[in-house]
Amino acid sequence: MAAAALIAPGVAQAQEETRASIDVSPNVGYSSNPFSGTGNDLGSGYAAVDIAPQLQLLTARDILTVSGMASIKEYFQHYAEASSYNVSADYAGRPSERVNTHVRMDLSSAIVGAYDTVGDLLTNPAAGVPPPTDLALYGSRDRRRRVYVTGDFNIALSEHDKINVSSFYESTRYRSFGDASNYDGYGSTFGYSRQISAATSVGLQGSLARYVYPGQRGDTRVISTQATASTRLGPFWTLDGAVGVSFVDSSTFGSTHKASLSGNATLCRKTDRTNLCFVASRSVRPTGFNGTQYVNMFGIDGSRKLSEHDTISLHAAYTTEAGSRSLVLPGLNTRFLLVSAMFERRLSERLRVSAMGQYRNIFTDIYSRPADIGGRIGLSYRFGDLQ
Predict the structure, then answer these.
(1) What is the Cα Rg of the chain in Å?
(2) Cα–Cα distances in angstroms (integers) from residue 20 to residues 65, 67, 110, 263, in the given order
(3) Which comes out higher in pLDDT, residue 65 or 259?
(4) Model confidence, pTM
(5) pLDDT (average), residues 277-285
(6) Contact (Cβ atoms closer than 8 angstroms) between residue 132 and residue 120
(7) Per residue in 144-180, pLDDT tens?
(8) N or C: which end of the chain has fewer CB within 10 A?
(9) What pLDDT digit, counting tens, does each position of 121-142 carry?
(10) Rounded mean pLDDT, 289-306
């Protein structure tokens, strides 16, 4: 509790509600190429347990959430233990009627190329945490340790005008390929938006970022300017996006040096039974072993309640890495496809059962590797608060 007071004094002093829970999820499954490696006879069954504690402190103006995830996995053959971990602290506050603030910190440790609860599914766009991009290291089974801190605040200047300022810091380290892959990054974004109708707002934003590669590997500086828009398309659909140009100045061997289009778009439909989102983005991102590159991503996320107890969900993503041809590994323009589907049944307020199938494949210009096809079945039980 003392740590919570240091992070968010207002929460500790005006606490109205505390929620604590732990989700425990044992599961078993099979993966034909669990780390996107090369060669033959790569498949293995596995047993795993995911443990996810969460503590929330809530007041009328503040929410502090501290959560964790330990994904402990043992393969039956070929591979050693491959556990992943993540801890995060997220604070959202409203110090006045016109000001909103947000701070988040994530600490993670995961095997590059593994498909698990932490691994390369570690992404929460709503919290401003981009997923790691290390396609050049898929198959290496290197361990990545990452710290990501982000903060932002927005101020309502008037009924129609708002400004937003955000900053981030990240530090990524690799166990085996550290000399060629480690990097630190930091930057800020300033944005202005104006509500032009009941359903639509438009604006402008600019950002500065720098990615530093230790030793003699240089650094990359990125300046981006974008126009932004957000609108509601009827009672169920929303569209949010930004489009502009990123200018790159890099002294890092193998990194892109080009100015190019950048931006993102999200089209969502939400009803009582269905959530469906189409997403696309193009941005300059640091990568393990491949310097700073343009990363393009196209994805679909959807879920539908079949009944009071049954839900199906679908996730698909296609990612490309390298806006200019890599100099580290000539010809390495990398593409990655992931498709997964899950069925979940709620047996009680605390107990759920699920089954999931997946397909993953990674492609480059100079070599290929076997696809990863697999699935798992499991249970999840919640201890503590049900909310």
Answers:
(1) 22
(2) 10, 10, 25, 38
(3) 65
(4) 0.87
(5) 91
(6) yes
(7) 999 999 999 999 999 999 999 999 999 999 998 888 8
(8) C
(9) 434 454 566 776 777 778 788 8
(10) 89
Q: Which CATH number fits domain 2-384: 1.10.287, 3.30.70, 2.40.160, 2.40.30?
A: 2.40.160
Cα 90 from Cα 104, distance rounded (Å): 4
Question: Which candidate, 170, 197, 139, places its Cα nearest to that of 371?
Answer: 139
204: closest CA among 162, 233, 166, 258? Answer: 162
Check: CB of residue 352 under 8 Å from CB of residue 375.
no
- Residue 348 backbone phi and psi in degrees, to 5: -160, -175
Between the CA atoms of 5, 10, 16 and 20, what dihedral angle is there, to the nearest 10 degrees?
A: -40
Query: Which H or E run contains 66?
Result: strand 62-75
Tell me the two tokens of residue 384: 């503590």
Give residue-wise pLDDT tens across range 193-252. 999 999 999 999 999 999 998 876 789 999 999 999 999 998 999 999 999 999 998 887
Say if residue 215 is exposed, middle or buried (CB neighbours under 10 Å; 0-12, 13-18, 19+): exposed
Burial category of 367 from C-beta neighbours within 10 Å (exposed 0-12, middle 13-18, buried 19 and up): exposed
Q: Which H or E run contains 179?
A: helix 178-181
**Residue 265, SS3?**
strand
**88 CA to centre of own chain:** 13
Whether 129 and 166 have beta carbons less than 8 Å apart is answered as no
Q: Beta-carbon neighbour count of residue 348 at 10 Å? A: 9
Which residues lie closer than 8 Å to 348 by C-beta, 6 or more apart?
A: none
The residue type at 54: Q
Number of C-alpha atoms within 13 angstroms, CB side, residue 201?
A: 15
Q: Is 262 helix (H, G, I), strand (E, B) or coil?
A: strand
Per residue in 92-125, pLDDT (tens digit) is 999 999 999 999 999 999 888 887 654 444 344 5
Lookup: tokens for 226: 């974008």
